[in-house]
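Weekly structure sync - notes
Attendees: PM, LS, DV (DV joined late)
Agenda: review two folding runs queued last week.

Item 1: First target. Sequence and structure tokens pasted below for the record.
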Amino acid sequence: MNRNKQVLVDRANVCDSTNKTMKQLYNIALDIGTSSVGWCVTDMNGKLMKFKRRNMWGARLFDKGQTAETRRLKRSLRRRYARRRQRIILLQNLLGDMVNQKDKNFFVRLNESFCGSVIRQKNQIIYCLQIRIIRIKNIIRNIQQSII
């Protein structure tokens, strides 16, 4: 309790536990650290006080604080994906008339075939990869058949 962080917090009247009618001044000292808080109660002469025959001092230990780095990274990733989705929607709204003149189902096919980094379920990733593997196998078979 004799660190530099010791703080005199309060002076007040209090009843001594040995004599209920006697009142005296006391000091409360706190030692506030990063993972603990220590405290002690002394009289004006610096003598440790007692309450119910117990010394009035103690310490409270806490778990060490955790950084918010993982939450911050996930939050920035969500924001980046949201901005990307907004840009795609904006482009579809701006270019929609010109594209619909040539091909009305272009954006529908584009949205259905999209299998990039914005995937909501793991099954969709597996499904898209299976389709790509089947297409690659078919291309290889066609090349092999054309050579033979």
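Item 2: Second target, run right after the first with the same settings.
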Amino acid sequence: MQERHARFIEGVKDEPLGISSAPEPTRDVTEITLYTQDHPGLFARFAGACAVLGMNIVDAKIFTTRDGMALDMLWVQDPDGGAVQEERRIRRLEDTIRKVLAGEILPPDAIEQRSRRQRRADAFSVAPQVFIDNDASDAYTVIEVNGLDRPGLLRVQVRALLHAAAGRELRLMFPLVSSVAEFTAARALVDKELARLKKFGKECPAHLEIGTMLEVPSLAWQLDTLLPLVDFVSIGSNDLLQFLFASDRGNPRVATRYDFLSPAVLSFLRHIVVKCREYGTPLTLCGEMSGKPLEAMARAGLGLRRISMSPAAIGPVKMMVRSLDVSKLETFMDGLYGLPDRSVREQLASFAEAHGVAV
């Protein structure tokens, strides 16, 4: 970043005002950099120009050089919480900044005019709701927050979790991650909040682990890059399978299109298990495929050793596990992954019957 800013300053040092915009889509922000002669009220006008267009400021840095020049940076999001990427919108933003700094636009007047144009979302009230569920998983507390999206919402949630876990152990898991870049952006946000706690002398969690839910298939093909960065992985089987088969599990007309025990699913999960074992990354699985003895038996044959299920399923699955020779099952399943069959349910059921496995 410092090198980029140095090149920017070198390119505009002979101009009265230099403005540079750099979209960062993976962080959902656009960095706006301003270089000009410093004077009182400069930063306030800079921020006011962003407010005129309804931009949300999520971060800022201010520097003044020894020769009295200001290097100010704002990281902004559009009103929908995304980065400003289109060239047309970037030009409009930069043009507005120039006009505000030149006194051609007065932010209070422009903002008042803009506020008169009521957005549809403002026509009704949506009260935020928070649900805490300790029964959904035997390993985690599930916290669900419903409400209108807004910039900084995730950061506020992370800040609250870090405060609540002061001096205690905390495990954070990010869901629906589709790329490594998304995870690194989320982890950077946590690191920023940890730095904030230390800066203000607040107690941090005694032990912090950060992992990801694997439920988007694209992430499975980035495991060599992802696994060195995470402390654990949890497979979200319900969403993973509907995305893998492009089939809505909530639609009864297509919900039975796929089988948990198809060679495609087993091979896909086996790939994840092998990679996590290679990197020594703890792996768990949750979802419907864990709660039935035959499906749970197949997961054991894949190499999964930690699965979550509803309390009612524990007894039957425990009985299955106590009657199972896993090494024999693993050898048997080596011959199933490459089959063209829609499902290998019958083959697994026959194995269980032949070896006295209680399914």
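Discussion on item 2: The chain has a mean pLDDT of 88.
Action: LS to circulate a short write-up before next sync.
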